[in-house]
Amino acid sequence: MEDFINSIQEIISNSPSLTVQIAETVGIIFVLWMLRLFVVRILQRNVESKKSVYKWKKNTTYIIFTIGALILAQVWFSALGQLGTFLGLLSAGIAIALKDPVTDMAGWLFLIWRKPFDVGDRIQVGNSKGDVIDIRVFKFTMLEIGNWVDADQSTGRVIHIPNHRIFSDDIANYTSDFEWVWNEMGVLVTFESDWKKAKKILQEIADEVCKEFVEQARKEVQKAEKSYLIQYQYLTPIVYTGVKDSGINLTIRYLTNPRMRRSISQKLWETILERFEEHNNIDFAYPTVRYYDNPTEGKPGTIPSGD
User: Fold this and answer.
1) What gap in Å lies between CA 77 and CA 1, rounded to an integer?
2) Fewer C-beta neighbours within 10 Å, C or N terminus of the chain?
3) pLDDT digits (tens, 9 = 90+) for 186-241
């Protein structure tokens, strides 16, 4: 321990300029760190939105770091020419040795510049889906949805994804610019049911449940049209008719907020079950095995002759 202390004292006595540089470096880091804490404290007291506080904290950290790097460069490098040469050699070595981290930083710059998604957005990157809860220089973090949980509900898992994935994987944003998605729900009724009445009931239910979303979605579409070529002629719910093996399939297509998809689906189903229960000529269909006697059950024109 004494040898170490003696070595430090010898370095200080033999290199006074180095001692000054070290002292200036420590002082600059301390001042900038205190400045960041002061700014963050003011933000927490005066800004109510947690999302805004988070963004300002991140931006403040990046600004302080950049200012600190420039000031320390002036302390440790006597001329900008030396600094440029050093940075050129350093960046070339880093690019070769640390390919993925460098690509992660490029991805972070792309996220800041182009903003394909932001904190609070619900996105899908490759096979991973979730709500973005943090964006950093080398990775972004999501609170996972889906997977073994139905209807895009949270699993509780936190997923960390390297930033370079945004260059190689498809990115789907559920909530950016246009915060609505189309959802479809199939209702299967038997061939013997009064499907026209069932379709009318489903249309009434969908209009009633989704009416509050239509006007909001229309405003969002007008906003999104300024940035993208998005054109929707109809935003109101609609019921389509189709046929499947087990019966007539009536599909409700409607707009919903991504985070409300399950609750809206539940509300629709509960209302459908209650309304269908009131009608004795509407039955739900499901896969069954049935014996069909054409001579007694078929239409007259389809019954084979006795010849």
Assistant:
1) 32
2) C
3) 999 999 899 999 999 999 999 999 888 887 887 777 777 666 666 677 788 999 99
The answer for residues whose C-beta is within 8 angstroms of residue 144's C-beta and 6 or more apart is 128, 129, 130, 154, 155, 156, 157, 158, 159
Contacts of 104 by beta carbon, 8 Å cutoff, 6+ apart: 137, 138, 139, 162, 163, 164
CATH class of 181-277: alpha beta
Domain boundaries, given as residue ranges, for the chain: 2-97, 113-173, 181-277
Give the pair of three-digit tokens for residue 232: 């929707």
> Was domain 113-173 assigned CATH 1.10.10.60?
no
Q: Which tens digits make up the pLDDT trace of 14-60?
A: 666 667 777 777 887 888 788 878 877 777 777 666 766 776 677 77
Among 37, 33, 18, residue whose Cα is nearest residue 75: 18
Closest C-alpha to 204, from 275, 156, 287:
275
Identical fold at 113-173 and 181-277?
Answer: no
The angle formed by the CA atoms of residues 274, 280 and 286, to the nearest 5 degrees, is 75
- Assess contact for 73 and 65: CB atoms under 8 A: no
DSSP 81-95: HHHHHHHHHHHHHHH
Which tokens hold the place of 114? 């182009």
